[in-house]
Amino acid sequence: MLETVIQSLFAQAQAQNGRASTCLSKGLWLVADTRSARRTLVLFRRVGQPSMQEARICAKYAGFKAYAIAPHGNKLVIFEKE
Question: Could you give the count of Cα atoms lying within 13 Å of 78 in the half-sphere of its Cβ?
């Protein structure tokens, strides 16, 4: 299910202005960004922070073969590597 949600989020981002977002259970927000050559996924919560484990799981289901996770304030940004 998560794989389907993330893949459709990236498809929606490509169809729109390059960004799309959705809220998963337990208040975890995902923002897909396709404006650059590499896809980017941003995880955040309105209250609290996402965990590194959640970021790794999302990267796996996004189909990222190689990626980097960087904290940015209360968000985690997952960059797809080439």
Answer: 27
| Residue 52 · residue 35 · CB < 8 Å | no
Give pLDDT tens digits for 6-33: 999 999 999 998 999 999 988 999 999 9
Q: Which ranges of the chain does DSSP label H, i.e. alpha helix?
A: 2-15, 52-62
Q: What is the pTM of this model?
A: 0.90
Percent of the chain with pLDDT over 70: 100
Q: What is the DSSP letter of 25?
A: G
Say how far apart CA 22 and CA 44 lie, in whole Å.
Answer: 11
